[in-house]
Structures are given as C-alpha cells and as structure tokens.
C-alpha cells in the first residue's frame, strides 16, 4: 500500500476526480494504521499543573482564534416532543422541519429520557474523569479504533491540538460494543450508560421517522438507510474540557461538522458550544432537562443537501470546567450512503457521491476537525 503523507491527504480532499477519491481512500487507510504521531499528554494533567500560559501546541494561528468569531446572542429552537403524541403533532412536525432547514441544531424537551437517567449518565461520566490518571490510562485509546480515553482527534504530526480529553466507545451494533473497553470505574458506569444509550436510541428513531415523514418518505425510510434495529450505529463520546489559562487562544473542540447522522448532546451548565449561522456564531445555552440535537454529514448526504450538517465548536473558559456527553446515531459502518433516490430528480440531481460510513469517518480520524471541508469535498459538481 502506498505510503500516505499529510500532504497527499490534504491535497486529495480538495480535488474531486475519481482517481483522487481512490487516492484519498488509500491515503486515509495508510495513515490510520499509524500510531499517534506524538506522545499523548492529558489536557486535564496540564491544566491541573497550574500553568499560567498555554503551551504552544494548543495555540491556534491568528486567523483561527475564537476571538475572531462574531458571536450573536440568538436562541436555537426549543421543541416540545410531547406534541408528537397529541393534537399538536402537525405543528410539532413543522417545528422540527423548520429547525432542520434553518438551524440544523435544536433543543428537545419531553424527549422520553427521564431527568434521573440524564443525571445518572452525567454523574458516571464526571466520575470517570475524577479517577487517578493511572486508572484512566488503562483505557488509553489508539488512532485506529479511537475506542477509549483520548486527547486528540487526527494523526497529523505537529497539528494544533484542542483543549480537551474524551472517552469514546460504541453501544451499537452489538458486534462492536466491546463492553470490556468501556470505563470499568465507576462501577455503575456500564449500567448507567446502557440505560442512557437505550433512551437516546429511541429518541433518534423517533427523530429519523419524523425527518422521513417531513421529507415525504415512508416513515422508516431514513432509519433503514442507517441499518435495521440490530445494526444501526450508536456511539458515545464524553468530552471533558478543563479550565484553561488563556481561553482566547484555543478551542475545547475546534470547528467541525459531525461526520455521522444525528448527534444527541447533554451538556453540563457551563456555556461553551457555539453553532455557526452564516458568518456568525450563536452560543448554545444549556436548557434544563433538555437534550440538544444536531444534524451530521450523513443526513446532509442522504437528503441531498435539503438538510445540512452544521459547523460547531466549543470554547473553554478560565474558571469552570465543562463536560458534555454526546451520543452519535450513525449509519452502520458497512452501509453505502448516498442521496436518497426519491429525493433526486431532474431539477435536483445527486449532489454527493456514495461511500460507506466507515470510509467516510476515516477523514476526521486522520486529519482532525476541519470545518465542513470533507462533506464539501464529496460534493459532485454538475
Ligand atoms: O461539547 C460539546 O458541546 C460539543 C461536542 C461535539 O461537538 C462533539 O463531540 O462532536
Ligand atoms: Fe460535534
């Protein structure tokens, strides 16, 4: 297999020929078989050492610093999902349709997951990051599967890093759940997280059927494009953003769109998430007992761009650590995803090519977060 360089990967994402797509695929594979390019340092350890100045590898270039963001205080929609079950159904469906088209981001309340399960999921996640370093290190992850305790996304040597640690693992399909790779402490982590994931799975199924109906498709259409009940993808990423001595110079998570289908976010009460709206950014303020939904690249591709994945980023702060539990609902990794045929016609030709989700997600796992560059690079121009 040819040896990939960072340059070949970067060059191939901005070129759209079929040879280049093939080259991109080979390059991404080759890079993924690598180790992390530099020794991993835990951001939590750096923060707890009491440093006053940010180490240079976390400082973004001037034109990428969050202080360059124009931030506008708007509210993303809050949608009461209990309305789907009574006479408000039509109105609620319309609210979801409008939120998907205008924002790609919305809060949901009365989403079916009890406040107790939200609290339990948050607590076990928080407790994991309170464990001694040696305990967390037992689960250190690698750049091939990403499963475990991690501190970077992407394997580009010398890349500017984000100010955050995370834990990533799968819930579905069962064949890749590998529960022994979930945190073993706190002791009730696995039970609590399973309950939380079961709840989010039901929520995602409901949303996928609403999206289908709103787009004039049979109710199960998008869900079945993700896989059947056993092989749909559900994975968890717990993000931990320690306090930061110079938050104006870095991100907890730099701008990106999520590569998958639907993202369900539970954040603690510290504001940090921002969503891009045109040329400005809107803070996503936590709403009590709500979950925040955002659309990922696979929904943009399946809907042929009718719904768009939306760029977002997280800023950090000097006083308070921030945490989020993110559940990603994705197409099964082996399933080819492309624009849904029923959404294509003469005036709306296919705008994206076909690719399996496993192949697609190699991009972010290789180059790290890069705005919406990958989904844009898969567009077919006619
Ligand atoms: O921490 C957050 O609020 C967002 C996290 C996120 O965007 C992600 O994990 O993809
Ligand atoms: Fe994200």
From TrEMBL:
<dbReference type="InterPro" id="IPR044861">
    <property type="entry name" value="IPNS-like_FE2OG_OXY"/>
</dbReference>
<keyword id="KW-0560">Oxidoreductase</keyword>
<dbReference type="InterPro" id="IPR027443">
    <property type="entry name" value="IPNS-like_sf"/>
</dbReference>
<dbReference type="InterPro" id="IPR005123">
    <property type="entry name" value="Oxoglu/Fe-dep_dioxygenase_dom"/>
</dbReference>
<keyword id="KW-0223">Dioxygenase</keyword>
<dbReference type="GO" id="GO:0046872">
    <property type="term" value="F:metal ion binding"/>
</dbReference>
<dbReference type="GO" id="GO:0045486">
    <property type="term" value="F:flavanone 3-dioxygenase activity"/>
</dbReference>
<comment type="similarity">
    <text>Belongs to the iron/ascorbate-dependent oxidoreductase family.</text>
</comment>
<feature type="domain" description="Fe2OG dioxygenase">
    <location>
        <begin position="231"/>
        <end position="331"/>
    </location>
</feature>
<keyword id="KW-0408">Iron</keyword>
<protein>
    <submittedName>
        <fullName>Putative flavanone 3-dioxygenase</fullName>
        <ecNumber>1.14.11.9</ecNumber>
    </submittedName>
</protein>
<dbReference type="InterPro" id="IPR026992">
    <property type="entry name" value="DIOX_N"/>
</dbReference>
<dbReference type="InterPro" id="IPR050295">
    <property type="entry name" value="Plant_2OG-oxidoreductases"/>
</dbReference>
<keyword id="KW-0479">Metal-binding</keyword>
<dbReference type="Pfam" id="PF14226">
    <property type="entry name" value="DIOX_N"/>
</dbReference>
<dbReference type="Pfam" id="PF03171">
    <property type="entry name" value="2OG-FeII_Oxy"/>
</dbReference>
């Amino acid at each position: 297999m040819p040896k990939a360089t960072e340059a070949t990967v970067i060059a191939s994402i901005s070129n759209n020929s079929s040879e280049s797509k093939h080259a991109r695929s080979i390059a991404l594979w080759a890079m993924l078989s690598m180790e992390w390019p530099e020794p991993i340092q835990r951001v939590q350890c750096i923060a707890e050492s009491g440093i006053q100045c940010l180490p240079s590898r976390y400082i973004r270039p001037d034109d990428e610093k969050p202080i360059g963001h124009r931030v506008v205080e708007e509210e993303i929609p809050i949608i009461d999902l209990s309305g789907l079950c009574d006479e408000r159904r039509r109105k609620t469906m319309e609210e979801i349709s409008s939120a998907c088209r205008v924002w790609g981001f919305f809060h949901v309340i009365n989403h079916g997951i009890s406040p107790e399960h939200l609290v339990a999921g948050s607590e076990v996640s928080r407790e994991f990051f309170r464990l001694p370093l040696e305990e967390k290190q037992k689960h250190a992850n690698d750049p091939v599967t990403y499963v475990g305790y991690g501190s970077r996304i992407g394997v580009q040597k010398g890349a500017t890093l984000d100010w955050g640690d995370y834990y990533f693992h799968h819930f579905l399909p069962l064949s890749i759940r590998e529960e022994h790779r979930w945190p073993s402490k706190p002791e009730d982590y696995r039970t609590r997280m399973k309950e939380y994931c079961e709840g989010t799975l039901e929520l995602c199924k409901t949303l996928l059927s609403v999206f289908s109906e709103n787009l004039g498709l049979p109710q199960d259409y998008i869900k079945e494009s993700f896989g059947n009940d056993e092989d749909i993808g559900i994975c968890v990423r717990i993000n931990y953003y320690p306090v930061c001595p110079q938050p104006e110079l870095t991100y907890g998570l730099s701008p990106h769109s999520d590569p998958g289908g639907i993202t369900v976010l539970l954040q603690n009460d510290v504001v940090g998430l921002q969503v891009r709206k045109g040329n400005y950014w809107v803070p996503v303020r936590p709403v009590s007992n709500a979950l925040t939904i955002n659309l990922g690249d696979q929904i943009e591709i399946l809907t042929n761009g009718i719904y768009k994945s939306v760029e977002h980023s997280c800023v950090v702060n000097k006083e308070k650590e921030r945490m989020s539990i993110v559940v990603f609902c994705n197409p099964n990794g082996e399933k080819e995803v492309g624009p849904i045929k029923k959404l294509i016609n003469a005036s709306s030709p296919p705008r994206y090519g076909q690719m399996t989700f496993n192949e697609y997600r190699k991009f972010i796992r290789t180059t790290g977060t890069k705005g919406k560059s990958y989904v844009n690079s898969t567009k077919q121009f006619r």
